[in-house]
Amino acid sequence: MEEGIGGLRHLYMTVFLSGFASLMVIPAITDITMLALCPGQDECSLAIYLSGFQQAIIGLGTVVMTPLIGNLSDVYGRKSLLTVPLALSIIPLVILAYSRETNFFYAYFALRTVTAMVCEGSINCLTLAYVADTVSERERVPAFGILAGFLSASFVCGTLAARFLSTASTFQVAAFASMLATIYMRVFLKESLPGRDGTLRQPILKGGSDAIEEDGYSPETIEVFKKVPSAGDLICLLRSSKTLSQAAIVSFFQSLAEGGLQASLMYFLKARFHFNKNQFADLMLIVGISGTVSQLLFMPMLAPVIGEEKLLSIGLLVGSFNMFLNSISWAVWVPYAATLFSAFGFLVQPSIRSIASKQVGPNEQGKAQGCISGISSFANIVSPLIFSPLTALFLSEEAPFYFPGFSIMCIGLAMIIAFVQSTMIRASPISSHKISSIISVDST
Predict the structure, then answer these.
(1) How far apart are CA 359 and CA 441, in angstroms?
(2) 66 and which of 44, 93, 185, 373 could share a cystine (Cβ 3.0–4.6 Å)?
(3) Does residue 175 form part of some domain?
(4) If DSSP codes are grouped into helix, strand and coil, which group holds residue 230?
(5) How many domains, the chain?
(6) Would you call 166 helix, strand, or coil by DSSP?
(7) Are 51 and 150 in contact (CB under 8 A)?
(8) Is the Cα torsion angle 249, 252, 254, 257 positive or negative in sign?
């Protein structure tokens, strides 16, 4: 189904609408959580711990669900599986669109936790696999960058909307946009079913010499994909390519840092500089604009010239500097200035995904992207367990020494580890000979 980047316009619009709905509520959710749990306070350990607990539970669910959904999409199609997380993501938004009172917040919190187990990584995983189905390897890096750029553009538009809308209107608009994304996807997006164009390859994990049926898959292959992928399956996939294993390690530490940032930064800024919804929105607006420019302009231009491996290393190095600068913020303008470096951090995930996609055949894209997403989700389980208590401790009066941004500095160290590993990656597309070798080894 290779149609080139132009064939992705409906996918890009779906990603934009879905991202707009989910991201525009972020500036408001910290204030809503604090109001429900600790009214009238700027520092609340309970809110930090509860948010960290939610993040860990969501990560635990996505570790299982994302590889499973990626696997199933290799058989039943990307569009069919994409319907599930898009539809589920509507429910929590509708609750807070109706009311933000304490009881409704708890209902939102519970349903958001459950639905995010399916939605959090699945939409990203499926859209990346759809891109890999649709474009050639030569165009894949720019296509991944443009996809991430549309997500960043949705972030900018959503943040702008949150900046000027009331909290009630923000959730109402978000709920409507989420519904619109699902309807648009179902009406306009073409199904992508890998292997139906005559280019089917045997799966890396499970191979055999049985004849393929008319629909493109043998009963044994379908049975394999219907199963929840085991840890052994994922290990086998990672062992099939040293580059894929290295990309997975980088993804783990980068996601560990990203999850820590999500669990810590807003509460750090709330306690340190008394940020509110509008200031969060302003900060996120700068981040979103930087990411949009980076992914829509820099990545398509730079990736063919210097390669995604170097882009990955640059993004991680500059991203770590961003964290170190945030950790020592001495004035309210410092977090704003530090966000200018985030433009390079947005190069990281598209680069990792592009490297991973080139290590497997066209019939394993869902599996590979699901594997990387599952590893990222596992990092999101570990991250709040580390950084939420660390943030709460150093923002409290019981801190062993005065350094409110200590947890942010530790996030920067995690990114440095990812950077060191990224410098060892030497990516190359998987060859047909390598696939055949893996199949023969696995079948014996």
Answers:
(1) 17
(2) 373
(3) yes
(4) coil
(5) 1
(6) coil
(7) no
(8) negative
